[in-house]
Structures are given as structure tokens and as C-alpha cells.
């Protein structure tokens, strides 16, 4: 489901669960990998990547529909905590968007410092307006902090699907490259910034996203 390798100073977190949808097991495995990354010493950066045509399709709605209200509340809270953890991770993070990146998967991607997207295939999409699931307060705060105002409005209200070239133009991602260059480019960016001091980055990120952090702290899943 989740595998972790290291290339130079860069940890590469591979999501290998098909569409990489977020159920309890997936989120637990993802956070266990982050635990290992944060326990490391010395220069480090993180790259996350999916497999085949999916980076992540977001919440596992089929799994969630089978859970009790109490389990659902706990799961949404854990997804929120994971988003916030990525956003404030005390090292440089790069999302290697190898394929489709939808809904909560798109939000986790946006929580990274940089994003590299496959140019020829795959879409970035926030489909909540079409699937009739409003963004939580935390998700709303994250999206508005990580996207330009006009882009956030369009992406959130229209459920538009963005290819990589347009995603670069709208400042959703930083680079659009060929399929076989997505992961190498992400690793290259991460390696070039891996020496940044973790304590300093932690302070910078927590001050930069102070308002977002406050929303996450006070957002109780319904």
C-alpha cells in the first residue's frame, strides 16, 4: 500500500494501492511512513508518487459508506491531520503527480511545497461540486491558502478538470513534464533543497499557514 525508499537525501514515498483512495488503512500506512521520514537525521526532503495512471483519487467513498458515523468522524479527522501534517512537514516536500489527482488526493498534493505533473495524461480536479460533497472548513482553508484566488474559485465551484499545461498556467502545479521525467524531476527539486534546516522550515511553515492551522484545530467533523 505504501513503500518508502531513499535516493540521496530524498525519501520517496510510493503509494501503490491502485487509485490510492483514502481509507483508514491507507491513512495509517501513509502516516507511518511520515513517522519514519521525520525520525531521520541530517539533510532530507520528501517526494510522494502514485503508480500507473493514478496519484490519488481521494477519499475511499465505498469504504466510508460502510462505516458507522463515529468511524466516519474519526476518519475525516485523521485525513485532516494528514493534510496538515504534509502542509507543515519540517522539510521540503514535492508531489510527483504521475496521473489523476482528484478530490482529497488533490488537496494532499496541494499541501506539498512543489508539484510536478505528467504533461500528456491525467487531470487535477476538485469534483466536490459535482458529487454533492461540500468541502470541510479545513479543506476550504487549505485550498484557499494554496491556490490563487481566481483559480480556487473556479476549481472549487465548477469541478473543472485541469490538464498539466493548464495547471501550470493556473499556478496549481509548478512543472509539466513527460511521464518518464515526473519522478526524476521531483527528486531533483527535492534533492536541491534537502539541506534546508528543519527547525527553521518548521517555524516558517507554521507562521505562513497560521490561519489554516487554526481552522484545522477548531474544525470538528460533523
Gyration radius, to the nearest Å? 16 Å
The spatial strand order of the largest sheet comes to 1-2-3-5-7-10
Total helices: the number is 11
Helical percentage: 40-55%
Instruction: Output the structural class.
Output: alpha/beta
Strand content: 15-25%
Largest sheet: 6 strands, mixed
Question: Would you write up a description of this structure?
Answer:
- The structure is a single chain.
- Strand 2, helix 1 and strand 3 form a beta-alpha-beta unit.
- The radius of gyration is 16 Å and the shape is globular.
- The chain is built from eleven helices and ten strands.
- The chain has helices spanning 24-39, 61-64, 69-87, 103-110, 128-131, 137-146, 149-158, 164-169, 182-192, 198-208, 210-218, and strands spanning 2-7, 10-15, 45-49, 54-56, 92-97, 100-102, 114-118, 124-125, 161-162, 175-177.
- Helix 1 packs parallel to helix 3, helix 3 (69-87) packs parallel to helix 4 and helix 6 (137-146) packs antiparallel against helix 11 (210-218).
What is the element layout, followed by pairings?
Blueprint: E1 2-7, E2 10-15, H1 24-39, E3 45-49, E4 54-56, H2 61-64, H3 69-87, E5 92-97, E6 100-102, H4 103-110, E7 114-118, E8 124-125, H5 128-131, H6 137-146, H7 149-158, E9 161-162, H8 164-169, E10 175-177, H9 182-192, H10 198-208, H11 210-218
Helix pairs in contact: 1-3, 3-4, 6-11
Amino acid at each position: 500500500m505504501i513503500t518508502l525508499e531513499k535516493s540521496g537525501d530524498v525519501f520517496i514515498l510510493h503509494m501503490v494501492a491502485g487509485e490510492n483512495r483514502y481509507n483508514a488503512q491507507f491513512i495509517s500506512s501513509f502516516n507511518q511512513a511520515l513517522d519514519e521520514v521525520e525520525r531521520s537525521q541530517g539533510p532530507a526532503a520528501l517526494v510522494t508518487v502514485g503508480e500507473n495512471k493514478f496519484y490519488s483519487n481521494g477519499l475511499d467513498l465505498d469504504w466510508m459508506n460502510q462505516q458507522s458515523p463515529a468511524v466516519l468522524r474519526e476518519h475525516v479527522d485523521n485525513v485532516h491531520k494528514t493534510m496538515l501534517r504534509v502542509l507543515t512537514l519540517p522539510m521540503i516536500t514535492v508531489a510527483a503527480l504521475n496521473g489523476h489527482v482528484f478530490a482529497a488526493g488533490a488537496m494532499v498534493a496541494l499541501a506539498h511545497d512543489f508539484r510536478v505533473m505528467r504533461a500528456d495524461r491525467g487531470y487535477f480536479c476538485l469534483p466536490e461540486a459535482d458529487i454533492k460533497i461540500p468541502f470541510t472548513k479545513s479543506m476550504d482553508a487549505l485550498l484557499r491558502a494554496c491556490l490563487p484566488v481566481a483559480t480556487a474559485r473556479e476549481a472549487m465551484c465548477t469541478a473543472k478538470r485541469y490538464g498539466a499545461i493548464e495547471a501550470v498556467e493556473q499556478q496549481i502545479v509548478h512543472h509539466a513534464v513527460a511521464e518518464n521525467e515526473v519522478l526524476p524531476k521531483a527528486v531533483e527539486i527535492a534533492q536541491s533543497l534537502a539541506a534546508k534546516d528543519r527547525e527553521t522550515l518548521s517555524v516558517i511553515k507554521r507562521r505562513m499557514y497560521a490561519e489554516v492551522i487554526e481552522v484545522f484545530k477548531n474544525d470538528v467533523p460533523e
